[in-house]
Fold these 2 entries.
Entry 1:
Amino acid sequence: MSNISGEPTLQTADPALSNLQDEPLIPSRPLWLETLARIFRRKPVLIALVILLAIVASSILAPQIAPYDPLEMHQDFPREPPSTRFLLGTDEIGRDLFSRVLYAGRPSLILALMSVLLAMTVGTILGLVSGYGGAVVDAIIMRITDAVIAFPWLLMAILIVSVLGPGPQNTILAIAFIGIPGVIRMTRATVLVQKQMEYVLAARIVGGSELSIALRHILPNILPSSLVVASLTAATAIQTEAAVGFLGLGIQPPDSSWGLLLRRGYQFYTVAPWYISSTAIVVTLTIWSLNTLGDGLRDALDPRLRGVTK
Amino acid sequence: MRTYITQRIVQSIVVIVLVVVIVFLVVHLIPGDPVIALLGSFETATPERIEAVRRQFGLDKSLPEQFGSWVFGLLQGDLGISFRSEATVNSLIARKLPATIELAVAALIVSLLVAIPGGILAAVFHNSVIDYAISIVVTLLMSVPGFWVSIVLIYFVAVNRDWLPPGGYIPLLEDPAESLKRLILPGGTLGILTAAPIMRYLRSSLLEELGLDYIVTARSKGLRERTVLLGHAVRNALIPTLTIVAFQFGNFMIGGVVIIEFVFQWPGIGGLVLDAVFNRDYLVLQSTVLLVAVFVVILNLVVDILYAYIDPRIKFA
């Protein structure tokens, strides 16, 4: 993605050259600050971070922010369009949708977080093993990864959720399972690059064991790419929860989630289009923020990852 | 070249075998008894009857035996029998496939019609308002839930006004005009949604090409900018984009079909999968999902081989 900051940039064909013009050769600030500045120099990335933080914070602070109890029924106001009294309108039995969306964000975001953590842990371990474990192990892991990727992700999610039954834990497992192949591929690709680096050779010369090289030297170098993959996987996680919930295979009532709200809203879309749309807009913003953050991180931390992750 | 192709074919066969195993294992871990789910609706689930049905569908055999007979059938092109309707899975798929193929082809055409000009525009006017506008639309399209886009479109075009029917499928040969009219909304929605990543990829691929030396050469020969762009840069940029198109088509379009078909009441493969999930119709589910995954593997194989022919550099990569 290109910068939208509106700074005049010289039309050089080689992107590496235009980078040189923007960045002083010797950074005047500490490296981490320099990196942060580079990530957020692009306005969309900054906007994405602000939106994401706002959504996460308002879900965490739902009890403080929500104008109503999400279960309180205003019986005289069923299916009210958005107004100053009900910011996003009300549902079929007069519950305030703004409060409901805030509260539903909690399970959805936790679900995304848990499945990303699970996918990252399993995927990183398998990726390390694959990149480090020799040709046979590598081939086995990679072919299984190929086989899992051959399933369209939504079909795979539906299949797993229907196998395990609906509910939060099973949705987490399904989402994590979809994310794992991407993490494996990324970790493996990074390991293969890092393995050839001179610092690894140096560590080996000083007598470091393969395991300690993998854990102490290579693993930390995977971190930047992991951040990228984690945020893109989180976006897919929110998307999957929404789709699976919409089809009625995810979290079940009386629990709530964005996917479930979308499903309920769908039943009334002809008479109360704001019902599904209010949730859908929040979901879209969340996914957009995560995608944009992931892209921004990738461009700032490791442009070589383009094409590997998506 | 030949070794590369042989290698890719062997790889794909291994992947297909793994896909078969994964589908079978995943589906047979389903908790809940399909026979009880089946008979429960008729309230006739006596133990004898359950036993009879179980024997009829081979569910009394051990897992390896069930796997064996399923694979044996697959090799003969027999996908099994539906527990629910007692029709063959082959006939069910054959009945549902035309609708999905029509939808997918329409979506593919729309997505190429949107993605190719969009990607070229964004690259040619890169860092301009056009580029930013396109990139905003692309990132939004990649983030928005497909079913909501469909519902919004249905609401504005079909519910609020009478411009287009909100869904329902009519075979193309039965009534071409009405059929195409009904195809516009679902095909257009799915097409535009899958266009976004293709557009994005084409843009960066084209930008890369435009920075290469042969473009400078072409320009200094005095070729018109249009020839340089369309005759040289775009042609080369489209080659790697082909892989993304195939991946999008296989993965997102066929996966997205489940949701789009649900919302537009399109009687295709997506609906077949969902019905099978809700009815615990093992064989329909596992055979349909298998067919889709195998299709994706073969599609990617074909594209990779084509790619190797068009661009000989690939075999060294």
Entry 2:
Amino acid sequence: MTTSVKYIFVFIGLIFCSFPATTAAETGSLNGVVLDSTTQTPLPGANIQVQGTVLGTSADENGEFYLNNLPSGKQTISVNMIGYKERRFSIEIQNHRTLFITILLQPTSLKTPQLVVTGAKRSIQIKKSPVSIGTISSENIRMRLPTTVEEVLPYQSGVQVVGGQVNIRGSSGYARGVGSRVLLLVDGLPVLASDNGGIYWDAVPSNNIQRVEILKGPGSALYGSNALGGVINIITSPIKAKNKTSVLAQGGYYTPPSHQTWQWRQEPLFTGKWVLENERRSGNWGLQAAAGQESSPGYFQNGWYRRWFLRGKMEYKHSSAVQWNSRLFMMNDIHGSFTQWRSAKEPFNSPIEAVGDYLTNDKLQWALSYSNIVSASLSHRWQISLFRTAFRNHFHDNKTYSTSYSVTTEWQTDYQWGNHLSTGGFEVSGTQVNADIWSTHSGYDLAAYLQDEWHLTLRWRLTAGIRADFSSIDQSQNYAQINPKIGTNYALSDQLSLRASLGRAFRTPSIAEQFTETQQSYFEIKPNPNLSPETSLSGEIGMHYESGNILADIAGFLTQYQDLIEPQSDPSDGKIYFQNITNAKISGVEFSADWKIPYIPVKQSLSYTYLNPRDVSADTVLAYRHQHVFVFSNEIPLSRKVYFGIDYQYRSKFRRVQLFPYNPATGADKLVPIHLWSFTAYYQPGNHLTLRLSLENAFQYYYVMIERNMGAPRQIKLGVEYVF
Amino acid sequence: MMRKILLLSFLLFTIVGCEQGLQPVTGFEGTITFPTGDAGEVQFPDSLNGAVAAFVKFDLSLSAETLPQKILGYSQPLNLNRPQQPYFLQAYPDEFYIVGVIATKIPINQILTLPQDSLSAHPEYFQLIGYYRNPTQPDQLGFVHFTDTKIQEGINITVDYNLTLPF
């Protein structure tokens, strides 16, 4: 461990020791109910926070909440709820007394989540964040009937998904999912595979999400490795107060190719999915359990899959201050393998030799967390998670396997002092990989972080943070990293705020990037154990506006990457290997806006992202990045029970790909801009039944994103959900 | 107002919806036949690493030296375990092409991963082991020519490791 990293660990440790374990003060309690101001109905899930403290809670199924340990005297309460205008007011807390209040929230037209936890590892309003954060609401996900969450991510400005590999602001290209530069979290805990460092989207439940939060920009100052380009945090739905059982049945159909020469299968391409879920509460306990199965023949040969999963969540409220949560997810997946098409003449066919290639892939996630609000100024959180992945290839030329385990535990403390709110923590993780494709390896990571938010004035916040990481693989390759970050947010008015931030981030090379030795099709991959971590320095400035009917955000950003790890071909033997080859500079602008049209109930949203991704070392553009992305959505409620939506996505064609560039002499490997239209509809005839319809790629537009892999054709999906 | 918005939306997506994206390609295809041993196995010299189908535009200046520089496109690497296999090459119509099978003295994946410039600078990497012959005069070079947008079929090639160049 380098000397500077040791000093950072000691410094953060000392800061922790200086936090008092408890604070002695005169306190009282607050008991209240949150209601819709127009209908007087309870608002379960409303978030109540006591300003200037670490205290906060959510309203239960009856809209009621209880907060104790509030310091006596005048306190400011803020109440937030998706689809409602924020309320902020003062109350007087008296020693050993409980104050009862009723809070009325006024509905707004827009239903975008505004309270997020990813930017600062605790609740903060987007308009007060020093960094760009995007959100996707539960309803936005549900109405598109996605198979996996990655399908809804491209609707966010700054987010691109290329062949299943997500990148934020152009951070990643495409390397068959290996070495993600975006950290994926589920409820704040990492779920990246520890062998290939990639994201398994099927390991994220798509129908149990409260919201998705996307931190755009470097997140290593809080989250460490892999948060080089940003962080995606999937927040799962809380357990409801009322016992509930739901059945979801979903069917889909891929339209056959329009051209006779592209037909690859006579049978119709039907997809299917069902999920059975039950949640119940008893006293202080809450339980949520679900089982499901999904299958598809795919829209191309060997694109089939069959999966089943079990999911569980348990909650125990020891008191209003102490809570335990546990989460479990198990999935068995078997799917065909498709590397590239047979030929441009038969783009939906797999190469003859590869027909029948498949792989099995099992995942297991388990997490346990504990949170304790010790006092108005001090709270702790501890969590531990296990993520196991195991795959086995059954390819005609390759039968490899890998089993990986990662265990992560983290302690976090939030401490309020004066005008400061400090967050600090320690994180320890260990990995073990048993495989023939990249042999057996083990490693660990030690990290300590500290972030302070300083309220200079009522409108101006300054945030500074630092994280030290020490990683070791096989006790022979050691990496020490220090990642600082600084940011500020200034509220020009209650509606308009400005922000700016500057931060450093890093990613340690994955085991797959260092040690893969295999052959797939005619591509031979060789190891390179001498890889170094890739790093970035990123800055952004942004502006956020929100009122009842308009929500707008604009940001400009510049990121300089050093030692980017990219797959390369060795000229001496033609083998592919990963190497730190590239210094890159990515600049860009992103804009998003949601608004409601006056006098009619139509809501629209628009987002645009411009990227200028330059490979500085080679003086060319970086591969697999869209320069322009434009998304336009319309939500048209035809009545209270019927809803209709139209989405349009435009993505400019890649200016560079790596393996098969366009050949103008023959017309081979042509790329086209992507125009995708999709339609959604929703019908809720009663309180129990919901019907959803989705038509994706409605105009059957044919495109290639990854070379020699045709994009998905038109698909119609129907979902029926019954809740009782 | 609502009607106007719906009408505008309809017009917008009708206009953009006319864009069809990628379309079926033109080119030619056929079967490549390798010499086999008594057990039916492909006989492929150890000195060669692999083979691909490739094509050039007909040009009077073609020679063994200039051939690699003029290759327009390659097929996927051929499977050396299959005595007969189909291939497809994408090409524009209205040209005269010469189609052959090229064996490589370098690893076959280099054909796909190295830039064309660096490959064409090394004609010694390649060996022509078959070409499409005139169906009526098999001792002569055949030309592939198609004028419509269909895929030209029947461009079959038999591999011969002792081939002499026809030009």
